[in-house]
Structure formats: structure tokens, C-alpha cells
Predict the 3D structure of the following.
Amino acid sequence: MTETRTIKTDLLARVEGEGAMFLRIRDGRVDDVRLRIYEPPRFFEAFLRGRGYREPVDITARICGICPIAYQMSACAAIEDACGVEVPAAIRDLRRLIYCGEWIESHALHVFMLHAPDILGYDSAIEMARDHRGVVEQGLQIKKAGNALIRVIGGREIHPVNVRVGGFYRAPRPRELRALVEELERARELALETVRLTGGFEVPDFEPEHEFVALSMPDTYPLEGGRLISTGGLDIAPGEYEQHFVEQHVPHSTALHSQLRERGAYLCGPLARYALNSEKLSPLAREAAADAGLGPVCRNPFRSIVVRSVEILYALDEALRLIAAYEEPDAPHVDVPPRAGTGCGWTEAPRGLCWHRYELDEDGTILAAKIVPPTSQNQASIEADLRGFLAGNLELENDRLRHLCEQAIRNHDPCISCATHFLTLEVERF
Amino acid sequence: MARRPKLAVWKFASCDGCQLSVLDCEDELLALAGEVDLAYFLEASSAPVAGPYDLSLVEGSITTPEDAERIQRVRRQSRRVVTIGACATAGGIQALRNFADVEDFLAAVYASPEYVSTLATSTAISEHIHVDYELHGCPIDKLQLLEVISAFLNERRPAIASHSVCVECKRAGNVCVMVAHGTPCLGPVTHAGCGALCPSYHRGCYGCFGPMETPRPEALNPWLASLGMEEVDLVRVYRTFNAEAFRD
């Protein structure tokens, strides 16, 4: 007789956007695993066609309210590449600084409000605050410091107004940035405590083999550019992306699945970034990671919360370094005259690689646009995690399994709003 | 103790930014959670409480047949409905499909368009149900959101100004970017609420809060043209985050 178990979650909570999980176990074997994305499609790449080359900075920010700066930075990089302009070091540093703000607020949101409640056994951070008010307040303070940094440089936390092709509309005055130092230093102390806290969390043993893909910069942890490398030997420039990666449209998702042409699924985001770059963290972040029991590589996705905590600490450390070195640039932006051509750019969004390509005509009108966000790259690996984790834990009863499998998804902080061009969890056991 | 009012947060087609504004109230969030029961808020909690709700905040626009039905269910369960942000209030950036052929858009993004269920238009919530209040912005301002929640819970009218960004700019003591620097600016026709952010950053307003009450673009447009904006630039700047609201 055939025995089938189905486990499903129709409305995944504590993820950004709309998704569902569907798992089916037949005769004691994993039969089907789907991370369903039903977030309605929004067609950004289609309506970018015919727009001006200065517009994607503001338009693509609207793909995601949590990581708008990732889109702004990748759009700038790609369009400047198309126009053959390189921005000076002072503007690159300022971009890195506002990007640190986004890593801090986005990671703090995930660690404290979306992920920690899973591990500590609560439905929400608000419920968690009844027993652990100090922890939640700590998270809110870190998040607030990241947002303050974005607000000063960008004008506001969500969809900043001050970023443009070539740089910024107005460079912050040194005193505006120095006024943030005290809050950022306090947040850095709290981030150090956070690494200790999350490092002590009890999580399942689970070490799937993923090919890790992340940017790499010569002397520093990657944020605003670099070459793309992987544990599988990849080492490419932004313009070579499409030779190595392909996007597939699958029926259960309005997010396209991205794959390595030769080798299939891969993983980007904090685990990949850390595995490929951990030696480039600041001494403080490196030491905190070691104290929390992280080796130079962490393969357990359930420990991604520790890696995110380390990255918060790093971003605060890096922001303070950049502020200490800051001098107001001569001009807030450089001139970027349009020209016909194609340009590609990428940066490390909090959730992983964000790649853009634009094709422009001679007056800067966009002829074609392509955007690959982190979550669409990770969908296949998230499903692989679900399959692997499920296969090793079939003895667990349905409710426990559902809870852990939802976590296996949340481990990767999927941003469904981003990926749609993206998620629901169901487990079916027959 | 009196029963705490039940608040629900709903998402339709959107970027999540406006509902994130609730979680961005770092100083007020725990106090808010003390005053209201955050009964349905999937981005924050995996334990949704069933309706009815005293106040529903709706983010996002209606772009699929399923969502057109879902918004009716939200209305039936809610005593008051407030839309938050440009998507819910005016269709949002995804309403640019209303000016084009959606089949063409589908084919441009998806290899197998037959897998995707979508409507030809992206429409505001008020085109589908009765809405009690509309909060503007792409994204909304979090302090305005707190004001609206507080007003509805206390049965009073929200104290939200409906004048133009120009008024906020004068209040902020900014030099007019259009008069002083010749920078084209939509401030004269755009709804207040951001605190005149763009001019404060030496940039012209790009209209992300949508049109003010009774805007007069026919007075502004010739001036923008005299600053070098061509017809195509004007169409582009009006047709972005609040394209439907600026259509006329």
C-alpha cells in the first residue's frame, strides 16, 4: 500500500513577499519539494525599455523596499559601464558607506525580527519581546543605526533620493556623518553581543554541499563590485555573467530560477560571501566569528544567522572606518554622458549577488534591461536544502517537520518581492 | 482592561517597503504593539489571528484575478481600510503596464508566459472596494503612518496636509532649486508628506507622493519646458510611481 504524507504552508510568514512551501513524501521517500512563489509579477525589465538612462536608479529601487540600495548601486555600476565612466575613489567610498547602512538594517531585520523567533520558539519578535525584551530592543537599536546612516546620506531609509548615475546629488558634510559616530559605536557593541548570542543558538546539524558564488575584491570584504568567484573555480567579470549563468522559468514560480550553465544550482548570499572572503573581514569581525565557533567556511544554513551577525558587525566597523577617513569630495558626482552600448554591473546585496545589464542607444534611451536578484539565484538551492533536510529527518512528525522546513527556507532570507520577476510552503505526505 | 483594537497588514503587488515602515518604527514598535493587537502581519508573525479587524492597512495594487477577489474578503473582515503607499493608492510603478500591452511585457520577462496569471492592468485598491483613507508616498512616511493609525484608533481625522511639496520646502527653509539653480522640480504639483526631501538634497522633486489636491500642471509644464525639459522627459517624469494619478 502506498503511504503519502503532505506537508504544506500556504502563506509563508516572516519572509519578504508572498510564497508557499509544498513537500510530498511517498513511501518514506522525498517525492516532491517546491518553494512556490506566487507574488504577482511586476514587469520591471519590460517597462524600463524606452526610459532614460538616469531613471533605473530610482525605478529599480522600487523592486524591493528592504534592499533598494542594492538595486541603485548595481544600476549605477551597469550604466556607468555602458557609458565608459569610472567614478573616483571618494564617490566609491561614499557608495560603500551607504551600502553598509543597508546591510546593517536588512540583516538586523532578518536576524532579530524574522529568524531569531524561529530558533527561540516564538511566532514573532513582538511575542519574543515579552520574554526577551532586551534582545528585541538590541536588534531595533542596531537596525535604527543602519537606517540613520542611510537617511543621512540618502535622504530616507526606503527608496533613498540622493543616489544618481555618477555619484550623489549632494555629498554629506563631514559633520553630518560625524554626528552618527556615537550611535554607530553603540550599535557595534550591541553587534558584538549579537554574534555571541547567535553563536550560542542550538541549531540542527546539516551541511549541504553548495557551490558558493560571491564577489571578491582585492583587499576588502566585497560590497560594491569586484570579480565573481566560486568554490567551483569561477572567476569572471560582470560582462561575462551570461556566458556562465542561465535563467529558467519554472511553472510554480513567478521568479525565474538562475543556474550555472555547467553545474546547475549554486548559492549566493552571506554563507557564500563569508566562505570566499572571511579572511578579508576586519580584525574585530574575524575575531568575533572565531569566538562564535565559525571556521573560515560555514556550510550549515541554520547557522547563517551567525554569519549575518558577523556581517552586521563588519558593516558597522567598516562604516566607522569610512566615516573617520571621510573628506567631502570636490564634486558630489561626475558627469556621465550617454553613449550607445551595453553595460553590466553587480554588487553584493544583503541576500547576495545583484546583477544588472542595460543596453542604451546614443541618447541614453534604454533598449533592453536585465536584472538578476539574489533570491532567484538561490531558489533552486533552497529547494535542494529542503530536499536534503527532509530526507535526513523523515522520522519527525509533520508539525515539527513543517516548522524546521520553514526555517530551512528562512535560513536564506528569501526576498520574494525581489525575485518576482518570487514564495508558498506546502508538505504533502501520501 | 479594554480589548485592544485588532490591526491587520495586507500585501498585494508591491515592494514591501510601505509595510516595512511599520517595522522601521524602531522607537515606537513595541509601544504600538502594546496599544494594538498586530493580529495579521505575515512579514512579522507566523501566527495570524482571524478577523474581523478594526483597522486594515493595505499595501500594493491589484494585478491578478485572485487578488481582485482577495481584496473583497479583506474589506468584508475590516471595519476601516486604509491604503498605504503609491501602489495601493494609485496602482504604483507596475501601473505602467496600463499604458502598454501586457502580453508584450510578459513575453519580455518570462520565457513561458502561459505559467503566469496576471491582469492587463494594475489598479488602485479604491477601484475595487470602499477605502476609508489613502496615505500617499513611494514609500509612505513612517511618522505619517503612525499618525493615521493613531487617528483611526481614536476615531478622529488624520492630521495630514494635502498641500504641495512647495509649502514643505518653504517651511524647511530651502532655497528653491527651480528658481535659484534652474533644476526642474515637480514640487508645485506634488502631494506633501516627504518633508521636501529632494530639494533638501539639491535635487528636483520627482513626484513620488503623487499629485496634490487640485494640482495645476498646465501652469508648471511651460516652466519646466523653459528649463530644457522636452516632451519625452515630461511624460517620463509624470509616468513613474504614480502614473495613473498623474494621467490627466
Summary: Chain A has one domain: 4-429. The longest strand of chain A covers residues 29-37. Residues 89-120 of chain A form the longest helix (32 residues). Chain A touches chain B through 68 residues (CB under 8 Å).
